[in-house]
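Late entry, evening session. Most of the bench is empty. Finally got around to the prediction I had been postponing all week. Sequence below, unchanged from the version circulated by S.P.
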Amino acid sequence: MSTTTFGGETVTQGIASAVRGCLDGARDTGTVPDADALTLLLTAHLELGAPEPGDWYVDDVHEVARVVRAGARPGGPRHPGALRDTAVLRSTWLAWCDHLVDQDGLVSDESPRRLRSAIEEVDLTVGGDRAPVPAPAGAEPLLDRLDGTPPRPIAPAEPGDLDDAARQCRTLADAARLTVWVDRGRLLRPDSEGRDALCAEDVPAAAAHLEASPAEIDHLFSVARSARLLRTTYTRVLAGRAAYAWSAGVPGAVADAWADALPAMTAEHGTTTLLALTDLFLLGRERAPRQITAAYRGRDGIDEERVRVALELLADLKAVHRTDGGFRIGRLGDHCMVRRLRRVGVPVRVTRAIADMDAHEVLSLTEEGRPTDTGDLLHRWIEGRDPDTAAGALLEASTAPGAWHRRRNVTELLARQGVDPETTLRPHLDHPVLGGWVRRLRATGEEPPTSRPTAWALLDDYAVLVEAGLPLPVRDRERLSPHAEHFVRSVRSSGHPAADTVLDRLADGELGLVLARAARRARSV
């Protein structure tokens, strides 16, 4: 994160730019905010987890006010100068709010009226409440389920594919139609509680245009606001930045609007939809409603029927897919979860596009990723590549001594692909780690494990069994006993991570007396 010095304080470039923008814009209004106070507010906001200076909710106002009342930034020293005059601090904060609303810089879907009202009313007295800052709104169910463990890496979908899927969501399409109807803007309904809505006289007109009921218009307005297709000022309803991005054909714009709108589209089900989607996202496999319910046993308000209804709604909205045994997450659902987790400060690793991955990356994803990402991953990666080059790259990415699972998976894939070891893989036939696996692909049958490469491949097999707490296969006794001395010497000199453990088991007689004697003699030398 780049930093600069502003007003004697080291701040991020984003905050410095935001402060300058606000100061420049305020000169025309005659009310210039205090630069130190604004720097304090935006720095506290950032250190409490805000992704950018313009991402404000009412909850953020109360969180930042707690920091102000405590007299210090969450991660830095006290700021007595900026905190001395609460009137200056409040007027600066209100000027920042006005600046965001005027310049379409409020990137959240918070009501500007509610936000400004919260700033006007919040207690800023230094030395007051020092209660802990709560997690951001909507974060608790996510953070509870993660329990400090980051999600597994996620394979991305193409932005165009996500957009196509989002366009199939009827609710989002209707919200977009409402946005078109709003056109150049409408008056915002006066509401003492700050609830944003169309004026009473506009609701019937919008309902007639969309062939919907007034209640449906209220819901679609909420969806369009959450999607950033519509935005509001203190008095008007206008097209939002997502509407412009969508109409301009910006890749991913429709999917982003869908993801931002999902909480509004599922609001009637409370947190149940979020909990169900979180479960499917983290596990990345097919799940039945009863399994998801069991995962949240003990949480109030969660039962199997509610989970089932929530999942059916998520399927209708294109977030999840119905399967024979239940439901699994879709790419749009993944997209939404990644955005939500990042907003609450959870690091989520999204890999490069599969077509852009190298062999190391794709193999790492097969080992670390979720089943929904890894099922046919290697086949998708090989498509569009020269088969011989791809086969060699996969093998070369499997040479780490402890990568026995990877070598097994790659060899099984190459066998299914019908790769010829005598031509395509000839450079690897004598490789000390890969050679034994490549030779297994030969049609002439398996060689005795007396050389280092063939012994290494067998040790890979045994390492898998050792990891699982399983015995060595009794069927290998007859195959290995005639070559006991050569095999044991190859094992001992191999350098394989599992060599000592295997020799101990052989010496204990796990594969018979002949191999036990050979292993004991090797140990005594």
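Two things to note before I forget:
The first strand starts at residue 3 and ends at 6.
Strands lie at 3-6, 9-12, 186-187, 230-232, 236-239, 320-322, 327-329.
Will write this up properly tomorrow.
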